[in-house]
Design brief:
May be involved in the formation or repair of [Fe-S] clusters present in iron-sulfur proteins. Keywords: 2Fe-2S, Iron, Iron-sulfur, Metal-binding. It holds the Pfam family NifU. The chain is an alpha+beta fold and 292 residues long. It has 3 domains: 21-83, no CATH class; 90-164, 2-Layer Sandwich (GMP Synthetase, Chain A, domain 3), CATH 3.30.300.130; 187-285, Rieske Iron-sulfur Protein (3-layer Sandwich), CATH 2.102.10.10. It has 6 helices and 12 strands. It has helices at 17-28, 33-60, 64-71, 74-82, 90-107, 137-152, and strands spanning 110-117, 122-129, 158-161, 186-190, 202-207, 210-217, 220-225, 239-241, 244-246, 253-255, 273-276, 279-285. The strands form 4 sheets. The chain has a 3-stranded mixed β-sheet with strand order 1-2-3. A hairpin with a 2-residue loop joins β6 and β7. α1 packs antiparallel against α2 and α5 packs antiparallel against α6. The longest helix is centred in the first third of the chain and has 28 residues, at 33-60. The chain starts with 16 loop residues before the first helix and ends in a 7-residue tail after the last strand. 26% of the residues are buried.
Length: 292
């Protein structure tokens, strides 16, 4: 996979630019239907102008390496997608998106394979390894794989699992994504403090009203909701011995490298943790802080 260019930290603000524009448009509705239509027309004219400029820039480029860098920059790629100018076809973009989440899947002992993309825009996937049966597959697919695919290929209409006995109904995977490709109940929160964890260290963090427990095993960081499923209590004070996290109250051991698996089928509740724009970020579902 090609190296992605460095981006300034404030580039993350552009991830929500579409929402801010829509909010401004909605506020124009207070001035009546005519005012709202003029505001929409203004946006269409500006978008068309920048689209024409981007298309001309791409035609002037005679450097495949530079074009590749543009295609792998999150902000530029999103603009190219809006105007139908992205140089990579949908299969290439979906494949690249899966490559970006494979380290997360691998940390839970699994992987994902792209089977096909249908003419109707449906992506068919299958899990391999422990992801096939692990309860964290729901979190992994809906919050990591789905997010990556929809960012890279917003024209995708559905995501389906080929495994018939999956714990995730395929028809529900995009139920919380509206027609603009926005997640209604999921958001990513940068947590740069996680980089400060030393190998073997466990720390508690309050992120958007939710307490999570993060631990570092070697050069990998893992995040879980702060709740022991056995004693139904906080994990504050938990210790880490290799990959095993021990609850300080009931003394149950959980393998944090294998999706928080414990004895007798008990599982910690994992939170997808990915590097986004150079910053470790955790995915949360709304309402934040609600029990899993």
């Amino acid at each position: 996979m090609a190296d992605r260019p460095d981006t300034p930290e404030n580039d993350t603000q552009w991830r929500t630019a579409g929402d801010r524009i829509q909010t401004l448009l909605d506020s124009c509705a207070a001035g009546g239907a005519a005012a709202y239509e003029r505001a929409q027309q203004l946006v269409r004219e500006v978008v068309g102008l920048y689209g024409a400029g981007l298309e001309r820039i791409l035609h002037m480029l005679d450097d495949s390496a530079l074009a590749e860098r543009l295609a792998t920059d999150d902000l530029v790629a999103s603009l190219l997608l809006v105007h139908g100018l992205h140089p990579h076809d949908v299969r290439r973009r979906v494949s690249d998106a899966l490559e970006r989440v494979r380290p997360y899947l691998g940390s839970h002992g699994g992987d994902v394979e792209l089977l096909e993309i249908t003419e109707a825009g449906a992506v068919r996937l299958t899990f391999t390894g422990s992801c096939k049966s692990c309860p964290s597959s729901a979190v992994t697919l809906e919050l990591a794989v789905q997010d990556a695919i929809l960012v890279a290929a917003p024209e995708i209409s559905s995501i389906e699992l080929a495994t018939p006995n999956t714990v995730i109904p395929a028809e529900s995977l995009l139920a919380r994504v509206n027609s603009n490709g926005r997640h209604d109940t999921t958001s990513w929160h940068p947590v740069p403090e996680l980089d400060d964890l030393a190998p073997g260290e466990v720390g508690g963090f309050l992120v958007a009203g939710t307490t999570l427990l993060a631990c570092r095993v070697g050069d990998q960081t893992f995040a879980y909701r702060d709740r022991c499923p056995v004693c139904d209590d906080t994990l504050a004070g938990a210790t880490l011995a290799g990959p095993l996290l021990r609850c300080p109250r009931c003394h149950t051991d959980y393998d944090v490298v294998r999706a928080g698996a414990g004895a007798n089928g008990a599982h910690l509740d994992p939170l997808p943790l990915l590097l986004r724009d150079g910053v470790l970020s955790v995915a949360m579902r709304a309402p934040l802080g609600a029990p899993a």
